[in-house]
Every structure is written in structure tokens, then in C-alpha cells.
Design brief:
The protein is mostly helical and about 300 residues long. The protein contains 16 helices and no strands.
């Protein structure tokens, strides 16, 4: 009798798992009607199941998807917050971890399509350094993993390369398609704008080699230790990675930024060194010293080591 009771308990325990898995399977197939039916079956037999609330959010998301364009930025903001605050946590609660991003991608894509007619407004992007922040189609396309669409959305913004938010969006899109080598010119340009955007983008990219360079910069660069130091990251790169001179030369120089001028100057210095033009080097090095004495010292230290 005891063994029979234990077998019944095991069956009871496996029944709720079976029903729960049935809901998850239909959610992963993005079949709203079938997911609703499976959810109702689970709720009927296990009305106190802890997963019901999160599963209900996801089923409603599948049932209620709209293609109607957003009337304004406020409507997009409401929909985006719903995805961030309600749908994404529910997906992480219910779905296998490795499938969450793929499941959410069509949700972000739908929002991006509905936001396509909304113009970029600087106030909507705020001063946030998270590259995904902002009520515009471009960061939504990034969250959806649709890099070409994100690039197209940024290209439609006038003078996007002068504005931190769209420049950050384009930098990520370029990185996702072509890797770090393709992204270097935009990363440099982003560092010369408010550097917080540059610092905020690095974790989103998750590039191991770039993270190593950032940690080395943090440890070695003779700056203030504040986020503004990252404006000098491209110039410092030319000291430690002179092979990047060609890629960084493609960045749009900001003449009103000392850090940008220093990067261009170091590129010229490297070229003159290659040509052996010692007379020009003296003047160029003096100019670099005036722009940033610590950077100049770091540069000269590599030359002293080279000639020992």
C-alpha cells in the first residue's frame, strides 16, 4: 500500500510538470491559441501553480500583438516599458534561459516596425549611456538582432554621427555585422562625444579583446580616473596598438576636442616615424605634449624601450 501511494505521488508531481511543459512548448512555437488552451488546462488542475502569472503575461503578449503604427513617442514608451518590465521578466521566469532572447526578438521587431514613422528626438534618447535606451526604432531593431534594419533607421537621422545616441546605435550595428575592426572608427568618434556613451556601450558589445584594452587603459592611462578619460582612449590606442592607425584615421575628427586632435596628431607622428622625417617629428611631438603631457610621456616611454 505504501509503494502504491508513493507511485501516485510521483504521478501527481509529474502531472503538473507535464502541463507546465505543455504551455512552454506552445509558447515557444508562438501559437497563442494553443498556448491559451494549455494554460487553461494547467490553471484548471493547478490553480495555485506559481508559473501561472508569468505564463499568462506571455500568452497575452502572443494574443495581443498589434501592427498598428504608434501615434506618438509616448505610446511607444508605454509599449517598450511593458516589454521591459512585464514581458521580459515573465519570459525569464518561464522559458529556458537559452531561448529567452530569441523569443523576445519578434516582440522587439514588432515594436520597431510600429515605431518606424516616429522621428528621432534628442529628448527621447535622453542622456542615458545604455545604447538600447530611447524611444526610436533603431535601438529596438538592435534588441531584435536585426542589424541592417538598425543601420537603416540610424541613417535616416540627420547628422547622426554628431549625436551620441544614434552614433552609439550605429556603432553597435556595425560591430554586430563586421566585428571590432569594422567598428573602430565609430568607437573613436563615440569616445570624443560625451564619453559616458562610449563607456556604456562596451558592456553591451561584450567584446573580450576590447574589454582587455579598456582594463589596461584604466590601469595605465595618466588621467583623472573619471569617465571623461575615455575621450583619450583612441589616442592611447595608437600608443599601444599602432597597427590601428589606419582604422582610427577613418574616424571623423572633432576639431574642438583636444583628445580627437591628439589622435589625429599621433597618426601623423606614426607616419612621420615611418618616413624617418626627424625634423617634422620634433614639432609634432611638442604639439602632442601640449595637448596631454601624460599621453606624451606614455608615447615617449615606448620609444625609449624600442631604442634600448
Amino acid at each position: 500500500m505504501q509503494q502504491t501511494a508513493q507511485q501516485l505521488d510521483i504521478f501527481a508531481d509529474s502531472r503538473d510538470v507535464e502541463l507546465r511543459n505543455g504551455v512552454v512548448d506552445q509558447l515557444q512555437h508562438r501559437d497563442g491559441a494553443a498556448a491559451r488552451a494549455a494554460l487553461e488546462e494547467l490553471a484548471a488542475e493547478y490553480p495555485d501553480d506559481s508559473a501561472l502569472s508569468a505564463m499568462t503575461v506571455l500568452v497575452r503578449e502572443l494574443e495581443g500583438q498589434s501592427t498598428t503604427p504608434f501615434a506618438d513617442h509616448a505610446a511607444l514608451a508605454v509599449a517598450r516599458r511593458h516589454l521591459e518590465d512585464d514581458v521580459e521578466p515573465a519570459a525569464r521566469r518561464v522559458l529556458p534561459a537559452q531561448t529567452v532572447c530569441a523569443w523576445l526578438a519578434p516582440c522587439w521587431s514588432s515594436l520597431a516596425q510600429r515605431a518606424a514613422g516616429l522621428a528621432f528626438r534628442g529628448a527621447e534618447a535622453g542622456n542615458h549611456a545604455d545604447s538600447h535606451f530611447g524611444n526610436h526604432a533603431a535601438p529596438l531593431w538592435l534588441l531584435a538582432g536585426e542589424w541592417a534594419a538598425a543601420s537603416d533607421a540610424v541613417e535616416a537621422i540627420e547628422s547622426w554621427w554628431r549625436i551620441p545616441a544614434p552614433l552609439a546605435w550605429m556603432t553597435e550595428a556595425r560591430y554586430r555585422v563586421g566585428g571590432l575592426d569594422a567598428a573602430w572608427p565609430l568607437l573613436a568618434a563615440l569616445a570624443w562625444l560625451p564619453p559616458g556613451w562610449f563607456a556604456g556601450l562596451l558592456p553591451a558589445l561584450g567584446d573580450a579583446s576590447l574589454d582587455v584594452l579598456r582594463r589596461r587603459f584604466d590601469a595605465e592611462f595618466p588621467g583623472s580616473g573619471e569617465v571623461d578619460d575615455y575621450a583619450w582612449f583612441p589616442a592611447w590606442l595608437l600608443v599601444v596598438k599602432p597597427a590601428l592607425a589606419g582604422r582610427l584615421a577613418e574616424a571623423r575628427m572633432q576639431r574642438d576636442q583636444a583628445a580627437s586632435r591628439a589622435c589625429a596628431l599621433l597618426g601623423e607622428i606614426l607616419r612621420r616615424e615611418h618616413e624617418g622625417d626627424q625634423h617634422a617629428l620634433v614639432n609634432l611631438r611638442q604639439e602632442l605634449s601640449r595637448l596631454h603631457a601624460g599621453l606624451f610621456d606614455a608615447y615617449m616611454a615606448t620609444r625609449k624601450v624600442r631604442h634600448q
